[in-house]
Amino acid sequence: MKVLLLTLGLSLISTIALANTHVLMKTSAGNIKIELDNEHAPITTKNFIEYVNNGYYDGLIFHRVIPNFMIQGGGADAQLNFKTPNSPIKNEANNGLKNDRGTIAMARTSEPDSATSQFFINVVDNDFLNYQSPSNYGYAVFGKVIEGMDIVDKIVNVQTERKGPHQNVPTEPIYITEVTVVE
Q1: Is 71 helix (H, G, I), strand (E, B) or coil?
Q2: Tell me, what's the pLDDT at 96?
Q3: Which CATH class name applies to 20-182?
Q4: Is the CB of residue 171 less than 8 Å from the CB of residue 65?
Q5: Are 92 and 103 in contact (CB under 8 A)?
Q6: Res 19: pLDDT
Q7: For a surface tag, which of 42, 140, 164, 167 has the fewest beta carbons within 10 Å of its beta carbon?
């Protein structure tokens, strides 16, 4: 009987450890609930949660919004001052997850392992952003919107303008007011 209880207990612990993390992103346009994929993107998920738990995203904006493509945030305030992020992480684009509508992925430079704090939410299937090969590495998906895709669609359709070197900036800032881990 003790062995069975021990086995059930360990089974429960491993189930809890593998459970996906949920975050609530409150924005000035409405709330977006995201399920992170702890199993397939452990490095990226851990990185994102670190920023969330440190309040890094609170008060930033969606600074790049492109219809029929994506919305991007996690780096700039309303004056387009970019915060100093943590060190870049390893790119997990080769994890089997695809840049489909409603998924969240890490933004990066042309260097594959350069993602830090910035993320984007795909508003259409963006197959060209998926891992293709070591020379065409792609962008790491690490979760999906499970509530609030209507808010994402609302954001992607706002009017945008060019501000200095930045294109596709919403004319009225869309704030990320708070991001928290939720049950």
Answers
A1: strand
A2: 97
A3: mainly beta
A4: no
A5: no
A6: 83
A7: 164
Instruction: State residue 36's pLDDT score.
Output: 98
pTM above 0.85, yes or no: yes
| Residue 178 CA, distance from chain mean position | 14
- Chain-centre distance for alpha carbon 113: 16
Rounded Cα–Cα distance for residues 164 and 41 (Å): 35
Distances (CA, A) of 129 to 110, 140, 154: 12, 9, 23
pLDDT along the chain (183 residues), means of 10: 44 55 98 98 98 98 98 97 98 98 98 98 98 96 98 98 96 98 92
* Whether 75 contacts 63, CB under 8 Å: yes
Instruction: Name 50's Cβ contacts closer than 8 Å, sequence gap at least 6.
Output: 86
Q: Do β-strands 119-122 and 103-106 pair in parallel, antiparallel, or remain unpaired? A: antiparallel
CA 123 to each of CA 12, 64, 97, 180: distance values in angstroms, whole numbers, following the listed order: 36, 13, 15, 22
Instruction: Give the Cα separation of 152 and 122 in Å (integer).
Output: 9
Residue found by looking up tokens 């669609």 in the block: 153
Let me know: does 123 contact 140? Beta carbons within 8 Å.
Answer: no
Question: What whole-number distance in Å separates Cα of residue 71 and Cα of residue 62?
Answer: 7
Residue with structure tokens 């004319």? Answer: 171
Enter the DSSP assignment of 80: -
Q: How far is CA 169 from the centre of its chain?
A: 18
Q: Tell me the two tokens of residue 173.
A: 């800032």
